């Protein structure tokens, strides 16, 4: 598994996705724990993050199982296109205005977990899509490994990541294109299209996979589609003062 190149490519994709889409989660953690006494604040952050990550692994596990059903990759791919395009549009509303802080440890932890559950749709779909692309039955191990690597980056380096995104907008653009890439590769590998797209024998006897040139080509088209649509919609929005 460790010598399998697609495994490490998927690991890098998962880390990039979680950093890109995890900034909101770092903000949620900070807002929910801000009223805790200083001695409990670190515990609140750690327990809240642990609970949120465990919940996300469970959600991604079920997402990976569902992606094997016909037409669900098509739906997931279209959702990823929308998430990638939305990422390129300027922020208008404060999505965190309803995050309630608490001075009680477990109340703050519960707030973090519930808020993360509500906000995890984009992460879950994107990470499941990246992991599914690695194949070879290591998807859940891949998800856990990628999330574990990205936890310290999000929790302790979130401010640096946010400043980096503010200073270099290209980082966000590349991240949005990555989501478009994953969406494109998901669409052409949906089981419902297996009889319509070129296939070749898979690594396991009796299985087939989409030919690489088509999968990579769909990824490139998906990335360019997100880039072009995002820039077009952003140019039509009124400039913020």
UniProtKB/TrEMBL annotation:
| Cell wall biogenesis/degradation keyword on record | no
Matching entries from InterPro entries are given as: Integral_membrane_TerC (IPR005496), Integral_membrane_YjbE (IPR022301)
* Main location as per UniProt: membrane
Q: How does it sit in the membrane?
A: Multi-pass membrane protein
Transmembrane stretches in the record are: 6-33, 45-64, 137-156, 168-193, 213-234
Superkingdom in the source lineage: Bacteria
Q: Which UniProt keywords apply?
A: Membrane, Transmembrane, Transmembrane helix
For whether the record's keyword set contains Membrane, the answer is yes
Q: What NCBIfam families has UniProt attached to this entry?
A: R_switched_YjbE
Family to which this protein belongs: Belongs to the TerC family.
Q: What is this protein called?
A: YjbE family integral membrane protein
């Amino acid at each position: 598994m460790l010598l399998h190149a697609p495994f490490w490519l998927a690991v890098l994709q998962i880390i990039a996705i979680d950093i890109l889409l995890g900034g909101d989660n770092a903000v949620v953690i900070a807002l929910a724990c801000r009223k805790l006494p200083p001695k409990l604040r670190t515990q609140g952050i750690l327990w809240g993050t642990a609970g949120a990550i465990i919940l996300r692994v469970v959600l991604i596990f079920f997402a990976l199982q569902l992606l094997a059903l016909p037409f669900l990759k098509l739906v997931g791919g279209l959702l990823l296109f929308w998430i990638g395009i939305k990422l390129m549009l300027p922020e208008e509303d404060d999505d965190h205005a309803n995050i309630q802080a608490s001075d009680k440890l477990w109340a703050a932890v519960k707030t973090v977990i519930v808020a993360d559950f509500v906000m995890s749709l984009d992460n879950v779909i994107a990470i499941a899509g990246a992991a599914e692309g690695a194949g070879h039955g290591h998807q859940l191990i891949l998800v856990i490994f990628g999330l574990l690597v990205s936890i310290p980056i999000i929790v302790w380096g979130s401010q640096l990541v946010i400043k980096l995104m503010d200073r270099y907008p290209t980082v966000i653009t590349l991240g949005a294109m990555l989501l478009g890439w994953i969406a494109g590769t998901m669409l052409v590998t949906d089981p419902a299209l297996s009889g319509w797209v070129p296939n070749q024998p898979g690594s396991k006897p009796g299985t087939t996979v989409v030919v690489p040139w088509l999968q990579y080509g769909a990824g490139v088209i998906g990335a360019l589609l997100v880039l072009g649509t995002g820039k077009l919609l952003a140019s039509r929005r009124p400039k913020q003062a």
